[in-house]
Amino acid sequence: MKQLTSSQVRTMFLDYFKSKNHMIEPGASLVPINDDTLLWINSGVAALKKYFDGRVKPMNPRIANVQKSIRTNDIDNVGYTARHHTFFEMLGNFSIGDYFKEDAIQFGYEFLFSPNWIGLDAQHMYVSVHTEDHEAYRIWTEVIGIDPKRILKTDDNFWQIGDGPCGPNSEIFYDRGPKYDPENLGERLFFEELENDRYIEVWNIVFSQYDGKEGVDFHEFKELPQKNIDTGMGFERLVSIVQGGETNFDTDLFLPIITETETFTQIKYHEKEMAFRVIADHIRTLVFALNDGALFSNEGRGYVLRRLLRRAARYGRVLDINEPFLYKLVDSVIEVMHDFYTDLDNRPEDIKKLILNEEKRFIKTLQEGEKLLLSAIESQEGVVLPGDVAFKLYDTYGFPIELTQEMAQERGVSVDLEGFDQALEAQKERARGSRQKIESMGSQQEDILNFKVPSQFLYDTFEVEATITGLFVEGHAVETLHDKGLVALDQTPFYAESGGQVSDIGSISGGHIVGVSKANAGQHLHHVEVSEPLHLGDTVHVCVDTNRRILIRKNHSCVHLLHSALHEFVGEHVNQAGSYVDDQYFRFDFTHFERLTPQTLKNIERRVNEWIAQSLPIHTDIMNVEEAKASGAIALFGDTYGDVVRVVSMGDVSKELCGGTHALSTGEIGVFKLVSEESVGSGVRRIVGKTSLGAYETFKKAEQEIELIREDLKLVSQKSIIERIEEMRIEKQSLQEKYDLLLKDALHAKIQTWLNDVNVSKEGLNVLWVQEYNADKELMNEIVDKLRDHVDLLFAVNVNEPNVSFMVSVSPKGIESGYKAGDLAKELAQATGGNGGGRPNFAQSGGKNVSNLNAAQSQIYGKIGI
């Protein structure tokens, strides 16, 4: 076997498929662009769905890629097993209606086993096929020549997620030998599909040949008009086999990171392998995800990253690393990966800062978790700590279950491990359920897929005579269209929805064009509603809604100016993450790790308006894509371009590859008004803006609101709103001071009255029940502070229908008599439909049914003998 580095394996894969006339598709960002069905890009095919369901025709039907991916449905297995990862690379080759089973199988076999390429020993090859895929079986046995005794037939080899393209699959396994077969089970491991480290799957070919329907037997699926190949190879697995690593972690992809981690501790890798593996895996995920614009947060992608960091930091503690250290591993990850992922060199310091800040936050959270654990243990003394409490400590505060057990055991409390495992499994089930539609695709429409008649889009034209070249109703080709359907023309001035810009609308002879989309081969399909029938071959007059188109192109041109202003005032790391442009407004999504300050937003708005006022010329050049990029034109991350592209320039302030419609000069835009800036996801922010008439209407609305405020404040023309607000602030401060004094006097009087109502329990304890209505938390705290030193058992109750909250205080004398605030608060809460608890001397709880409050008081008073 050849001695190859991971970098050489990756390069060899791409070189092999280049030699087989494949187009190398750039890997997509881990943060999906314009795809709300995905949390992360999680496979090689995830960014290619548009090709598989026929929406878009690729420039070359043969595609290969290296796709960075994240999967987090099974985080807790990372480190335990040899091949589980959160971040990994998928190497894939794809055929979109081109080659099929025989070529796909031969490609996989040749790349893995030919001495000209990877050169694995073919005598160690095993294969699986679907039980009824006789064609794949024939190819393996007759064309490749593999011994049929090495082929597993199984019903499990069928790939389908939801509706759309699906089909049987065939996998290539590699036998690593008896060293990885401690029980000497041999081929039983493979044919009985037992969990093992000997027979490793390295290649999976999906033969996408059916139009799947959820809940329907696959024998009833229709054959796809365009059959596809989707091949995926786990890069880390292949590198492990090539380099002879015992696990994926024992390769040059992970060992440099593990070695660097060893410098922070006295413990060595072989002593606590799992901890080192978790840290190495998770730091790779963090670096790549943060580099692609994701951020730590409490939901979505950000929650995933936060959980990964905390898990890695927890295992740092296992290695006796008790201070922030993960940020110090960023350089190691970049050093291992930057040859191929050159963009990792762009912002390493930003990534380190984000990780360090999150590590510091986690240390604080751990301290809070320790308080919660100790409180929970105190309230469960001598009993069992509930599994849901242990899971909350694990999931929210990052406590390893082992740490919870250790701290509980020191205090004579055991942990409900069965309940913990149930809560953990429920979380995994939620994660699995949330990814059911991750890779589902749309069904192919055969007639539209096979429609090849070309059409021409006419930029900056608003009406034309055109010939009907195609008519479709519900995806089927027809000769005559009577009501609603799709119309293809030999030429059209109508822009088809693309790149975030909405389509044009307008008129067609005998009806209306209500939208325009693109067919598989790029032709414009006009969505029409007609009162007179249209026939194939008719000549029709089509006219764009001119006023709407002009407003759209003003907004679109402003998007380009905004992009340039963001680069100037926020940073060159800003990438477009989606956009929407219509005649009313535009929105621009971009990658950035924090909200923009008010001053930055003012600077951006002013700069864009300065460029508009300069009336910069807007012109379009058609050029070779490499020439365009060399000229400084911005190519949007994740977009695929043909050999010839349109480059839209606005003076010397903006130059982008763009197929949309634009104003003739920036002056045509008129004015730009920034409406809002907000977060729309982890590491993605959104600016909404308006231009021209839309901006004017926004200004007028603000003017009207100001007038209404002036009228409400009864301002004379000589006085500004700011002056009046300052006067009102001073008046409010004066009134607040008077109110606070009156409240203090009233509370003092109330306290004297309450203390006159103290009851005495059977043990001689002073007991007081205080009840308020709709009081704020600050007032209730003050009431407790004023009263707790005067009584042994204090019950401060706040009624806010239908809810009720309790604050319970118990003096040392009360605790000696056997009462605990936590128990009393919990009993009151449960009697009113809630829950809660706390320390023996003080506790808080809440109920959801205030109608049971009197019964709850009677229950407690009966318990303490009043």
Automatic annotation (TrEMBL):
InterPro entries: aa-tRNA-synth_II/BPL/LPL (IPR045864), Ala-tRNA-lgiase_IIc (IPR002318), Ala-tRNA-ligase_IIc_anticod-bd (IPR018162), Ala-tRNA-synth_IIc_core (IPR018165), Ala-tRNA-synth_IIc_N (IPR018164), Ala-tRNA_ligase (IPR050058), Ala_tRNA_ligase_euk/bac (IPR023033), DHHA1_dom (IPR003156). Its main location: cytoplasm. GO terms for molecular function: alanine-tRNA ligase activity; aminoacyl-tRNA deacylase activity; ATP binding; catalytic activity, acting on a protein; transferase activity; tRNA binding; zinc ion binding. It is found in: Cytoplasm. Its EC number is 6.1.1.7. Keywords: Aminoacyl-tRNA synthetase, ATP-binding, Coiled coil, Cytoplasm, Ligase, Metal-binding, Nucleotide-binding, Protein biosynthesis, RNA-binding, tRNA-binding, Zinc. PROSITE patterns: AA_TRNA_LIGASE_II_ALA. Pfam families: DHHA1, tRNA-synt_2c, tRNA_SAD. CDD domains: AlaRS_core (cd00673). It is an enzyme of class 6 (ligase). Its cofactor is Zn(2+). Residues 699-745 form a coiled coil. It catalyses: tRNA(Ala) + L-alanine + ATP = L-alanyl-tRNA(Ala) + AMP + diphosphate. One of its GO terms (biological process) is alanyl-tRNA aminoacylation. It comes from the Bacteria. Consists of three domains; the N-terminal catalytic domain, the editing domain and the C-terminal C-Ala domain. The editing domain removes incorrectly charged amino acids, while the C-Ala domain, along with tRNA(Ala), serves as a bridge to cooperatively bring together the editing and aminoacylation centers thus stimulating deacylation of misacylated tRNAs. Belongs to the class-II aminoacyl-tRNA synthetase family. NCBIfam families: alaS. HAMAP family: Ala_tRNA_synth_B. Catalyzes the attachment of alanine to tRNA(Ala) in a two-step reaction: alanine is first activated by ATP to form Ala-AMP and then transferred to the acceptor end of tRNA(Ala). Also edits incorrectly charged Ser-tRNA(Ala) and Gly-tRNA(Ala) via its editing domain. This is Alanine--tRNA ligase. It comes from Erysipelothrix larvae. The gene is alaS.
